[in-house]
Amino acid sequence: MGEIVYGSVIADKMRADLREKIIKNKDQVTLAVILVGNDPASLSYVRGKEKACAQVGIQAKTYTCDQNITERELQALIKKLNNDSDIDGILVQLPLPKHINSTKVIQSISVAKDVDGLTVENVGRLYCKEPTFVPCTPLGIMAILNFLPIKLAGKHAVVVGRSELVGAPISRLLLEANATVTMCHSYTKDLSFYTKQADILIVAVGKPQFINAQDVKKDAVVIDVGVNRQANGKLCGDVNLASVLDKVAYITPVPKGVGPMTITMLLWNTYEAHQRRMR
Ligand code: NAP
To answer: Does the predicted TM-score (pTM) go above 0.70?
Structure first.
C-alpha cells in the first residue's frame, strides 16, 4: 500500500523554520497582494495568503481594486509598488478580468519583486540557470520530492500538462535534477503509454480523477497538482487516489498536498526577495 504524502505537514515545518528566521533576524518583510474585483475564489485565495503571511511574520498589504480598473491604472499601481522601498514582493492574484491583458500587467512587476516568478526575465533566468524566482507550485513540488527518501537522478519523470505556471517549469527543475523528463499535453496520443512508464508522475491537467490505477507504474511517486471542485462542493485532484493507492509508493492528496506547499514557497520567495534587497 502506498504512502499518502501530506504537503501540509512539510509546509508546517517549512513555515515554522521561516518564522523562526524572521523573528531571530527581526526582519521586516512585506508582500503586496493585488486583488482585482470580487471573485469569491480569488478572494478566498488572497485571504489564505494573508493568513499564511501572518503565520510567519510577513506583513501582507492587500490592494483591492475595482473590477473596472483599467490596465493603465493597474500598471500605475504596480509601478508605485516597484518603487516603494518598504515592499519586498508583489503578487497579482490571477485571473484578472477579461478586459485586462494579464501578460502585460505581470511584465510590469519589477524582476526583483516578482515572487511568483512569472515575468519573462525570471522565466528566462530559470532556463539559463541564473538566480531567479521559480514559480511557487513547481518549487513546492520539488520540496515534496526532496523530502522523500528517493533519488531523482536517472529516474523517468513524466509530466502531464505543459502550462507556464506548472508543467513547463517543473519539467525544467526535474531535468536540472538529472531526471529523464517526458512532457505530455492534450495532443499526446496514448497518454497512458507514457504515464505507465513514469517513476515520478506529475499530473497538472485540471480534470477530476483523470489518472487511474491502469495508468500508473507499480511503486511510482505520484504528485497530484490538479484542484477540481466536485458537484458536492468538495475538492478532488486529477488522480483517483483510491484507485492508485495500492499500486504506487507515494502520492500527494488533494486537498492538503501541493496546495499548502505553493503558498509556503510564496512566503520563502518573498523572504528571499527581502534578503536580496538587504544585501
Ligand atoms: P492549464 O494552464 O489549464 O494547463 C493544463 C494542461 O493540461 C495543458 O498543458 C493541457 O494541454 C493539458 N491537458 C489538458 N487536457 C489534457 C489531456 N486530455 N491529456 C493530457 N494533457 C491535457 O492548467 P494549470 O494552471 O497548469 O493547472 C493545472 C491544474 O493544477 C488545475 O486543476 C489547477 O487548478 C491546478 N493548480 C494547482 C495549484 C496548487 O497550488 N495546488 C497551482 C496551480 C495549478 P495543452 O497545453 O495541449 O492545452
So the answer is: yes
